[in-house]
Automatic annotation (TrEMBL):
<feature type="domain" description="Condensin complex subunit 1 C-terminal">
    <location>
        <begin position="1067"/>
        <end position="1228"/>
    </location>
</feature>
<dbReference type="InterPro" id="IPR032682">
    <property type="entry name" value="Cnd1_C"/>
</dbReference>
<dbReference type="GO" id="GO:0010032">
    <property type="term" value="P:meiotic chromosome condensation"/>
</dbReference>
<keyword id="KW-0539">Nucleus</keyword>
<keyword id="KW-0131">Cell cycle</keyword>
<comment type="subunit">
    <text>Component of the condensin complex, which contains the SMC2 and SMC4 heterodimer, and three non SMC subunits that probably regulate the complex: NCAPH/BRRN1, NCAPD2/CAPD2 and NCAPG. Interacts with histones H1 and H3.</text>
</comment>
<feature type="region of interest" description="Disordered">
    <location>
        <begin position="572"/>
        <end position="608"/>
    </location>
</feature>
<dbReference type="GO" id="GO:0007076">
    <property type="term" value="P:mitotic chromosome condensation"/>
</dbReference>
<dbReference type="InterPro" id="IPR016024">
    <property type="entry name" value="ARM-type_fold"/>
</dbReference>
<keyword id="KW-0963">Cytoplasm</keyword>
<dbReference type="InterPro" id="IPR011989">
    <property type="entry name" value="ARM-like"/>
</dbReference>
<comment type="function">
    <text>Regulatory subunit of the condensin complex, a complex required for conversion of interphase chromatin into mitotic-like condense chromosomes. The condensin complex probably introduces positive supercoils into relaxed DNA in the presence of type I topoisomerases and converts nicked DNA into positive knotted forms in the presence of type II topoisomerases. May target the condensin complex to DNA via its C-terminal domain. May promote the resolution of double-strand DNA catenanes (intertwines) between sister chromatids.</text>
</comment>
<feature type="compositionally biased region" description="Polar residues">
    <location>
        <begin position="581"/>
        <end position="592"/>
    </location>
</feature>
<dbReference type="Pfam" id="PF12922">
    <property type="entry name" value="Cnd1_N"/>
</dbReference>
<comment type="similarity">
    <text>Belongs to the CND1 (condensin subunit 1) family.</text>
</comment>
<dbReference type="Pfam" id="PF12717">
    <property type="entry name" value="Cnd1"/>
</dbReference>
<dbReference type="GO" id="GO:0000779">
    <property type="term" value="C:condensed chromosome, centromeric region"/>
</dbReference>
Length: 1397
């Protein structure tokens, strides 16, 4: 077929070119075989050299054949074909401008060039797509493998990714020509544009197109599509294609955003933004809730587009608002993010027009409203957006309070992400606040009150000003006359100015009203307007005074001035007539005239208004700053409680927040900074590092001109932390400083200045000196040489022979010295002997002297110093028992001397001599400390030293036996044998130490034994020895003596627990709770029978005792030192304790317990049973609070299902309506699933007859509501069935449910057989008010019934669990007659009901 006689139609698929589709339509005649392709391609190349681009008309079949066999032909042939086609199209694009400009071009030539253009473009684009497909497949086969790029080159002989850009640029160049003239009527066919743009869209589908290396290709595609949009009406197709691609290709959102923003800006195609947004806006929100992939693409596109071109997008925002009410949260986030970008980039600033300000306010209202969105991701996103708005200072000041209130409210959000972002937003508010760098509300309250008072005074003064500040109108007139004359002359010379300043008189305006306007113009110094208005009034009011009274003989200027003067000063005569004679008799006529006009001129009044406005603005500023500070203070209180959340990220944000707060001088910041200290012990490395970084920022980088000034600031700030710090706080700070010292982050200047303050080389207060010694001791933990090299200096500082002695400083010196040695038990790896000082060292001599001398003085600081002194002696002295024995002997000698002096001076020889209470208390306290430290010394230092010596001896013996044996196998065998021998030796050493403790320490030959009768005497006679401090010291000493020997402990446990129960002193009960807790760890078998008495202290009337008992029981239970039984319900009661610290302690206990397998699940039935017991439980509301917390730990489906079944069965054995309601509430709090619901249906008969109660029915209905929210379609039927049964049973009873089932033809459910309720063998623990409550438990005996136990009534069955059953642990303890204290001081046990209140 002749090239001039056919027309090339662009096919939809390559196969269409093989079919004869119509008259004069080009058809491929023959698909060449692979072996003929190179020859035909060379022929095509030869023809091209002679015919140019039109050679394609005759050789198209060759290119078609190459495309047909593309997968199988040689790579070199592919590359040659591509290179040749690029050359052909390039040549054609260079020729076309001249051809298109040729007016004499024949129809046949135009048709030939059109066919050649379509053939060349079709061939090149299909070849491009073939290469792209092949490359994509190669990448899929070798995902992520190394050398992928080199293998792709080997497959094609070149790097295809580098070849795409020139082809796209060539097509762009071609489209930029005016090629539409090649078509009839200059209308280019849609198929040709679709061919060119289609290849662009196919390239975009490649996931690697978004990579940085493909940026040139992306830019070329964008340019090509931009030309198609601007020149070939491609907008509709592009919009549809972009929407489709966003739905199916997640990687394309940023690519298409870049393209669309470029088209809208560089190509001027802003309308395409509106078209795309309209298409997205018209998407059905319900459809997008199902199509998550599409919604994700649209959301990413809108978000990034708003960042690039917010001004263009803003005009289309109304289309997107429907998606704010849709179910897909990603679309809501995208629309909200777009609004935020517009606020930041377009609607920002103070010079906004009214319409823009309204739009901004609407956007902010929408953002605030979605701060309460049902989806946590949306709430979190809103807070993030507000954080950006605040950081860029785009939030209006009037919105601060509302947005801060939103952030503070979100701190209580259930979502961790929302809480985290709320904290970040509040931190941003602080960092970017427009008020002050210091935001203490106490500091702001003073200035606010002062300025408010000043404002009130100014307002009062303004109200009284007309009566007091009357100005002479004549003087005012004389002042304004020169300027008035000048204005009048200017208007006479330049009449055109009258037209510029036109003042018209209204038709209904009277002469008096016009006079008032003229007077106002004169007062405001608007003289030209006054003159022009006066001229108009003369013409308008010719018959009215004063405009009618004009002297014709005077000049025009004089007439005007006189008229203006009359108007300004007012009619004197009329004023005088109106006023009574008495009131004006003594007044000048001009002063009387002043009453008819303002007493103060307008300029003066204006200045006063300005001052008032400024003062109002100042007061408003201070009020806003004060409100802002109060809001931040409120947030600090909430955030500080979040510091111990389980989520690491929240804790890190809280720590960072308090660092920010500290920089703004809020006094509450120090509380948060201290509160974060215990987190240094966190097991999470991120939290620990966050605490260290916080303290680095707060303390290690102080401001100062010199290194010394910085060191002074650092020491001062750390000393503030130590003020009134607890022992725990000091230990935490010590750990942090130890870390800093070990990493050399503390400068030597700090250490030097601390020593100067400690030695008083620089003036400082006693407290500052004491804090310096404390800080030196803390630093010694990291580097012991800091203190070790200055030991004598420290002794001189704190243990000097000055009077009176400073026991606080001495105590801190002892703590600092203690840090030069390792207090832990020596490990086997250490070969060097532990650091010890000789007995005659000056340190121990001074310690002994200070303890002995202070023994007789009533200084409250002596007791803690004495305790530290004894501890230090045992830690560092060689033979510390000798030193401490001398201490005890010296103190005991002083007591005996005092006793002897009293007996000598005593008048009645029959009366027994008395020892001063102070001496007896100090002596018992010292004896207890020595006993405990002697035990610690034996079990740690002596045991460790014995072990170290044994290891050295065994190593020496091994070397003596075979010194040449060094091969690995023999060494391994030796170590194994030594391990076995070592285990036996360890047991021997432990037995030796135990024997010393049991047989020798409290034996009659030892000094400690001499104090045992004295301790027992004081403890057994609380009536005789009633001094609270003495009782506390004696009880503590008894606990310490019991720690030494199991035999002694066993014999005194009854006394200990009697005091624990009956002592009237909370401090004694608290101390003994700690002591018995320690005994439970040291002698668990001895204390185990007394465990119920430990639990009983959890309901102690004293808050201090409850707190101590909670701490002790937490440690014992979590360390598995006591059996966890139903009595753990006493810990659950602490969840509603009125003291927040105790409630937090109980919550922390159950949090930790929930991590121990199924512990909480196993205990829940017992806890529910005890707490809902009408005789010993808690009230209904507290029960709900407790169970809501405990049931939140049940998260496993199997646990939930099993618990549901147990609770349902419990309905049958419950005794009261209250128990029914409690059980129903517990069921409603469980996270039920469909399987759990089936369990409830199976046990419906257990609770069906109780549903007539409204509260029980409501509880089960709430279960239905929870199940519906996340129910699958197939599970809704069973939910409906359950709800129907509930409603029928509620209204008509359980029988109606059976009738309903029979009527529906359902099979009757088989009632599950129930076990008869177990008869309780528990003996309720009676009140401890009587002595008969204490019966010595029989340890390690089988369980037996108490002889006085009454049979359980059959009328009131009570369900109990195995852990509720009585055993020897739950029997009471009773002291025998001769062991019971003779003069007891019993206390009343508070009733359960009173405790609850």
């Amino acid at each position: 077929m002749s090239p001039q006689m056919y027309e090339f139609h662009l096919p939809l698929s390559p196969e269409e070119l093989l079919k004869n589709g119509g008259v004069n339509q080009y058809v491929v005649q023959e698909v060449l075989s692979i072996r003929h392709l190179p020859t035909h391609l060379r022929a095509f190349q030869t023809a091209f050299r002679t015919q140019g681009p039109l050679a394609m008309l005759e050789h198209f079949d060759t290119i078609y054949s190459i495309l047909h066999h593309f997968r199988n032909i040689d790579p070199d042939l592919k590359e040659d074909t591509l290179e040749f086609l690029i050359k052909v199209v390039t040549h054609h694009s260079q020729e076309l401008p001249a051809i298109l400009d040729d007016a004499s071009l024949s129809v046949s030539d135009r048709s030939a060039h059109l066919n050649a253009l379509k053939m060349n473009c079709y061939a090149l684009i299909r070849l491009l797509e073939s290469f792209e497909t092949m490359t994509s497949q190669t990448m899929d086969l070798d995902l992520g493998g190394k050398g992928r790029k080199s293998r792709a080159k080997a497959a094609h002989g070149f790097d295809w990714e580098e070849e795409r850009q020139p082809i796209l640029q060539l097509l762009t160049q071609l489209l930029q020509l005016d090629i539409r003239h090649l078509w009839n009527h200059s209308i280019i066919e849609e198929e040709f544009i679709s061919l060119v743009t289609g290849c662009c869209y196919r390239l975009l589908e490649n996931p690697t197109i978004s990579h940085q290396k493909n940026r040139p290709t992306r830019e070329a595609i964008t340019r090509l599509l931009g030309v198609a949009l601007t020149r070939y009406n491609h907008m509709l197709s592009a919009t549809v294609k972009i929407i489709q691609m966003l739905q199916h290709y997640e990687h394309l959102a940023p690519v298409l955003v870049a393209a669309v923003s470029l088209w809208a800006t560089d190509f001027g195609m802003k309308s395409i933004v509106g078209e795309i947004v309209r298409e997205i806006g018209q998407k059905c929100p319900q459809e997008l809730s199902r199509d998550t992939s599409g919604a994700k693409g649209f959301a990413a596109f809108l978000t990034e587009l708003a960042e690039r071109i917010p001004a263009i997008l803003m005009s289309s925002m109304c289309i997107l608002l429907d998606h704010l009410d849709g179910e897909n949260y990603m679309m809501r986030n995208a629309v909200l993010a777009a609004m935020a970008e517009m606020i930041l980039q377009v609607l920002n600033g103070d010079q906004l027009e009214e319409a823009s300000r309204d739009t901004r306010d609407q956007f902010l209202d929408t953002l605030q409203a979605h701060g309460h969105d049902v989806n946590s991701f949306v709430r979190s996103r809103v807070l993030q957006l507000f954080t950006r708005i605040v950081q860029q200072k785009a939030l209006p000041l009037t919105r601060f309070q509302a947005v801060m209130a939103l952030a503070v409210g979100r701190l209580a959000d259930k979502s961790v992400l929302v809480c985290k972002n709320a904290i970040q937003l509040l931190a941003s508010f602080l960092a970017n606040n427009p008020f002050s760098c210091k935001l203490s509300d106490t500091d702001l309250a003073g200035p606010l009150q002062k300025e408010t008072q000043k404002l009130q005074e100014m307002r009062t003064q303004r109200r009284t000003a007309p009566a007091s500040a009357v100005l002479d109108p004549e003087e005012e007139w004389e002042a304004m006359l020169p300027e008035l004359k000048l204005a009048l002359q200017q208007l006479v010379k330049l009449p055109q100015e009258e037209e510029e300043v036109s003042e018209e008189i209204a038709d209904r305006e009277t002469a008096e009203e016009v006079k008032g306007r003229i007077r106002q113009f004169l007062g405001r110094a608007s003289y030209k307007q006054a003159i022009i208005l006066t001229r108009g009034a003369i013409d308008h009011f010719q018959e009215s005074e004063p405009f009618s009274h004009m002297d014709p003989e005077e000049s025009e200027e004089t007439r005007f001035l006189n008229l203006l003067k009359t108007i300004f000063k007012g009619p004197a005569a009329s004023t005088q007539e109106k006023d009574p004679q008495g009131s004006t008799g003594n007044m000048d006529p001009e002063q009387t005239n002043c009453k008819d006009k303002p007493s103060v001129s307008e300029p003066v009044k204006s200045r006063g208004d300005d001052e008032l406005v400024k003062q109002e603005m100042l007061v408003q500023y201070l009020q806003d700053a004060y409100s802002f500070s109060l809001k931040i203070t409120q947030a600090i209180g909430i955030i500080s409680k979040m510091m111990y959340e389980n989520t690491t990220t929240v804790v890190q944000e809280v720590i960072e927040f308090f660092v920010t707060v500290s920089q703004f001088g809020l006094p509450q910041a120090l509380v948060g900074v201290r509160r974060m200290l215990p987190l240094i012990w966190s097991k999470e490395p991120g939290v620990r590092e966050a605490v260290l970084n916080a303290y680095r920022q707060l303390y290690l980088n102080p401001r100062g001109d010199s290194a010394r000034a910085k060191a002074q600031t650092l020491i001062h700030n750390l000393s503030l932390l130590l003020m009134d710090a607890s022992v725990g706080t000091i230990q935490c700070l010590e750990e942090i400083l130890c870390e800093f010292v070990q990493k050399d982050e503390l400068k030597p200047t700090v250490t030097q200045l601390l020593w100067e303050r400690a030695t008083e080389k620089v003036p400082c207060s006693p407290l500052e000196r004491c804090s310096s010694v404390m800080l030196l001791g803390m630093m010694a933990r990291g580097k012991p040489e800091i203190v070790g090299s200055n030991l004598d200096t420290l002794v001189s500082i704190g243990l000097s022979e000055k009077s009176p002695p400073d026991y606080r400083l001495a105590q801190q010196v002892c703590h600092a010295i203690a840090n030069i040695s390792d207090r832990r038990k020596p490990s086997l790896g250490k070969r060097h002997p532990p650091f010890r000082l000789p007995q005659d060292h000056r340190l121990f001599a001074r310690l002994q002297e200070m303890v002995t001398e202070g023994f007789v003085h009533p200084d409250p600081l002596w007791i803690p110093f004495k305790e530290v002194a004894v501890t230090l002696t045992y830690q560092l002295a060689e033979g510390p028992e000798v030193v401490c024995a001398r201490m005890l002997q010296s103190c005991a000698k002083q007591v005996l001397e005092k006793l002897g002096d009293k007996s000598t001076n005593q008048e009645d020889p029959k009366e027994a001599p008395r020892v001063p209470t102070l001496l007896l208390m100090n002596l018992l306290s010292l004896a207890g400390d020595v006993a405990l430290q002697q035990l610690v010394h034996l079990e740690q230092a002596v045991s460790g030293e014995l072990c170290r010596r044994r290891v050295l001896r065994e190593e020496q013996e091994q070397k003596m036996k075979d010194p040449k044996e060094k091969n690995t196998s023999s060494e391994t065998t030796m170590e194994e044998e030594m391990g076995l021998v070592g285990a036996t030796a360890d047991d021997t050493e432990a037995e030796l130490i135990r024997g010393i403790c049991e047989m020798e320490l409290l034996d009659g030959k030892q000094i400690l034994a001499a104090f045992v009768p004295l301790v027992l005497k004081v403890c057994n006679s609380p009536g005789l020895y009633s001094n609270p401090e003495l009782s506390a010291a004696a009880s503590l000493a008894l606990g310490k003596f019991c720690m030494v020997s199991a035999t002694f402990c066993d014999s005194q446990l009854r006394l200990l627990f009697t005091m624990l129960e009956k002592s009237s002193l909370p401090i004694v009960r608290s101390n003994l709770m700690i002591a018995t807790g320690d005994l439970a760890i040291r002698f668990p078998n001895l204390v185990d029978p007394w465990t119920p008495h430990l639990y009983a202290r959890l309901r102690d009337p004293a808050q201090q005792v409850r707190k101590t008992a909670g701490l002790v029981m937490t440690h014992l239970i979590l360390k598995d030192m006591v059996k966890v039984k139903g009595q753990v319900s006493e810990m659950a009661v602490l969840l509603i304790d009125p003291a927040p610290q105790i409630a937090a302690l109980a919550k922390n206990f159950f949090n930790e317990l929930s991590h121990k397998g199924n512990a909480v699940y196993n205990l829940l039935p017992d806890i529910i049973s005890r707490l809902s017991d009408p005789e010993g439980g808690v009230e209904e509301e507290p029960f709900h609070t407790i169970m809501k917390q405990l049931l939140s730990y049940i998260t496993k489906d199997k646990q939930t299902e099993s618990l549901v079944e147990k609770l349902c069965q419990r309905f049958r054995t419950a005794r009261t309506e209250r128990q029914y309601r409690d059980l129903a509430y517990c069921v409603s709090q469980l996270p039920l699933t469909e399987r759990g619901l089936r369990r409830m249906l199976d046990n419906f008969d257990c609770f069906g007859d109780k549903l007539s109660d409204e509260s029980i029915f409501s509880a089960f209905l709430s279960v239905v509501g929870k199940l519906r929210r996340g129910a699958k379609p197939e599970g809704k039927a069973i939910i409906d069935e359950f709800e129907q049964k509930l409603r029928v049973c509620h209204t008509r009873g359980l029988d109606a449910v059976e009738e309903l089932e029979t009527g529906q033809g359902d099979s009757q459910r088989v009632l599950s057989t129930k076990r008869p309720p177990a008869v309780s063998r528990q003996q309720r623990l009676a009140s401890a008010a009587s002595d008969s409550d204490f019966v010595t438990p029989e340890p390690r005996r089988p369980t037996r019934r108490h002889p006085n136990t009454q049979p359980v009534s059959k009328k009131k069955p009570k369900v109990v669990f195995s852990s509720d059953e009585s055993s020897e642990e739950e029997l009471s303890a009773e002291m025998t007659e001769d062991e019971t204290p003779k003069k007891t001081t019993p206390i009343r046990r508070a009733s359960t009901r009173r405790l609850r209140s």
